[in-house]
Amino acid sequence: MTDMADIVIDQDGSIARVRVTGRLTLAGLGNVADRLDALALSPAQIDLSGVERMDTVGAWVIQRFVERTGAKIVGAHPDAQRLIALVHATERDVRVRHEPPFAPLRVINEIGEAAILAWQTLLGLVAFFGSVVIASWDLIRSPRRIRVNAVVHRFELVGVKALGIIGLMSFLIGIVIAQQGAVQLQQFGAEVLTVNLIGRITTRELGVLMTAIMVAGRSGSAFAAQLGTMKLTEEIDAMRTIGVSPMEALVLPRMLASIIMMPLLGFYATLISIIGGGLFCWISLEIPPVTFVQRLQEVIPLTDLWVGLLKAPVFGGIIAMTGCFQGLQVSGNAEEVGLKTTAAVVQAIFLVIVLDAFFAVFFTQIGWI
Amino acid sequence: MDLHHPIAIRIRGVTNSFGDQVIHQDLDLDVRNGEILGVVGGSGTGKSVLMRTIIGLQQPRHGEIEIFGEPMLGADAETQLDLRRRWGVMFQGGALFSTLTVAENIQVPLREFYPNIGPQLLDEIAAYKVIMAGLPANAGPKYPSELSGGMKKRAGLARALALDPQLLFLDEPTAGLDPIAAAAFDELTQNLCRTLGLTVFLITHDLDTLHAICDRVAVLADQKVVAVGTIPELLASDHPWIQAYFNGPRGRAASAAVASHPAKES
Which domains are seen in chain A, by residue range? Predict the structure, then answer.
């Protein structure tokens, strides 16, 4: 192996000379660039006769030094001269990165951009909702265009395949509610009211709400990522040119599947939660199953079930819509798919919880307490 | 490693297969130091697979590959790493990192192999490589999605040249470019090859590129290299694919174009 590059400074009377030796390449450069930069004196000559090999990086370092100090190059090999000429020719005022703006301005800028983005997202979502309604109306008028296969396939992905995880989650939530409720109610000697707590909170709220959050995480994200990737690979443009409406082929089947599957999954989740809670009551509070079911029948009005099941399709629609909307907003690069998928899930869960609050007030107002 | 070794890449008896499908059978090829070797062949003859085999992305069934006299297959990790910084690869689609700017793309191999380079010098290197690859001066801070097809190719070339390699692999550099951009790219490749003393392994379908800049052409067919030589030498071959390729209507047009405008060869 040959030597690393090195510099030697000769002071011959008044004339200073810098001698460079060794391999002036990317691998052999070492700290020579920094040392040349740090050199205080301005030598008259830079001697390259000791250089064994040079690449464009070495040539660039020499060229930069010559430009700064005005030294004359001596003893350069023809190859080295050629490389130095090459890098000299490429010297241009090149911007490598955008200038970072003044920090306080940047903060204001970012706040402004976030506000504009939020406003545009809201408008976009409303517009998207509008086009979904129009497309649905078209489909209702000619129901033969409904893509039954696609919808059924989504049923499987959104509904059937989620049964396991949603069941497990609901079962555990049922147990947790029963356990926490029992501990508190025992202090008043009212542990028998645990049955009321489990029955009402799961049918009215938690069954559907937790299912919606799970479906947003499972299917909402999947919709965004699928559509986003299809957008990147120009599949959606290809669809349009063939005359297939992406709204009809991609968005509506997903919406339909979510709207139909959410009440079913929500009902299932409610049932499993009650079973989980009932099991806890049986084991821990010694309320036998027969008594538990009997009490349930007494304390849960039928309206509670309607409160839960009426919300579910709305949540399903919201989740599918944000997922598809964000997926179709993807443009540019792969990172965008990730960003939009995150946005889809966050917005879906946020909207679901906001709507749930409105529903709670609404149902109470109409007397379904 | 001897960088003045007369044979830059030496391939002997390489066999590649995917399942039952044999791509290469006992393939031999030499790439001479300092030449531009064009590699041609019909679709599916394994041009890209051959390139991937040389740069170690594909493990052949058996065979030997030497880079500058150094065996590549079965070499220890350190030797392989040392070999890797000797070459630059430009993939067909550019394969730029989409979340990094052009300048950052160029800096990735530099940071990876030489973490001690200061940020100032790193920026300067990226800046002159941008110009050297024929990109406009404002291309540095742009993201790949903001570039046109031709500019993506040039950015890919700039990244391939980041480490000042001795060996350059180009996979269909002019595919998808308009004829003017393709000719400009050919000229750029040739200039860089001459001034930097590069050896170029160039996969192409572009007959104009073959005529304009390739010193020799290797023809892949029947699972091996059926002929290597200058274009006149290949024309003398009676292999049916070579005849169909160079004497087809497009082949004739390309050679006529070169004959009427004697090459700007130095």
Answer: 6-90 (3.30.750.24), 147-365 (no CATH)
Neighboring chain B residues of A33 at a CB cutoff of 8 Å? 117-118, 121
Token pair of B51, please? Answer: 């390139």
How far CA B15 is from CA of A43, B31, B45, B70, B141, in Å, comes to: 59, 18, 13, 19, 43
Flag whether pLDDT at A58 surpasses 70: yes
Q: In angstroms, what separates the C-alpha of A225 from chain B's closest C-alpha?
A: 17
Whether residue A26 and residue B131 make contact (CB cut-off 8 A), yes or no, is no
Per residue in B202-225, pLDDT (tens digit) is 998 888 888 888 999 999 888 888
Mean pLDDT across chain A:
90
Residues of B with CB under 8 A from a CB of A: 85, 98-99, 101, 103, 110, 113-114, 116-118, 121, 123-128, 130-132, 137-138, 140-141, 143-145, 163-164, 195-197
Q: Looking at the predicted structure, is the pLDDT value of residue A1 above 60?
A: no
3-state class percentages of chain B: helix first, strand second, coil last, to nearest 5: 40, 25, 35
- Interchain contact A35–B (C-beta under 8 A): no
Q: Who contacts A239 (Cβ-Cβ below 8 Å, separation ≥6)?
A: A245, A246, A249, A250
Q: Give dist(CA B44, CA B23) in Å, integer.
A: 8
Rounded to the nearest angstrom, the minimum Cα separation between A246 and chain B is: 24
Closest CB to A60: pick one of B125, B143, B195: B125
Cβ neighbours of residue B62 under 8 Å, at least 6 residues apart? B13, B14, B15
Contact state of A26 with B114 under an 8 Å Cβ cutoff = yes
Contact B125 A92 (CB under 8 A): no
Give per-residue pLDDT as tens, A122-174.
999 999 999 999 999 998 998 888 888 989 999 999 999 999 999 999 999 99
* Widest distance between CA atoms in chain B: 57
Between the two ends of chain A, the Cα-to-Cα distance in Å is 86
CB B140 to CB A56 under 8 A?
A: no
Whole-model pTM: value is 0.70
* Candidates A83, A98, A333; nearest CB to B98: A333
DSSP A224-274: HHHHHHHHHTTHHHHHHHHT--HIIIIIHHHHHHHHHHHHHHHHHHHHHHH
**Pairwise CA distance, residues A185 & A192, whole Å:** 8
Q: Measuring CA to CA, which residue among B161, B223, B154, B156 is closest to residue B182?
A: B154
B111-169, pLDDT tens digit by residue? Answer: 888 888 888 888 888 888 888 888 888 888 888 888 888 888 889 989 998 888 889 99
- Cβ proximity of B32 and B8 under 8 Å: yes
Residue of A26, A62, A68, A82 to mutate when probing chain B, most B C-beta within 10 A: A26
Note the residue count of chain B. 266
Q: How far apart are CA B256 and CA B155, in angstroms?
A: 32
